[in-house]
Amino acid sequence: MQLLRERLKDAEEQRYGQAVYIGDRLVFDKEKFDKLDEEVSIIDPDTYELVYVNEYMQKSYGFSDAYSWAGEKCYKLLSGLDRPCD
Q1: Looking at the predicted structure, is the pLDDT value of residue 20 above 70?
Q2: Which of 3, 32, 57, 71 is a plausible cystine mate for 39, CB 3.0–4.6 Å?
Q3: How many domains does the chain have?
Q4: What SS3 class is residue 81?
Q5: What is the DSSP string of 48-79?
Q6: Same structural domain for residues 41 and 64?
Q7: 11: exposed, middle or buried (Cβ count in 10 Å: 0-12, 13-18, 19+)
Q8: Residue 40 and residue 73 in one domain
Q9: Residues 48, 76: one domain?
């Protein structure tokens, strides 16, 4: 979190991408990523849970529906591991 705060502060000071920041959040245009022909996922770095998986990745991994992956641990679902890799 500290690193994220520092980067955000630096970005605000340099006025980089002012339009993509709303308070302490980044704007995520889900529709653009949903239809992208590449695998895209967002994973919570603290819990390793999948937060977002686009349609292309869902098909690549054979997920049965849009939310069969929700809350699953990325290391288990994507790599078949019982714990995060070192």
Answers
A1: no
A2: 57
A3: 2
A4: coil
A5: -BEEEE-HHHHHHTT-SSTTTTTT-BHHHHHH
A6: yes
A7: middle
A8: yes
A9: yes
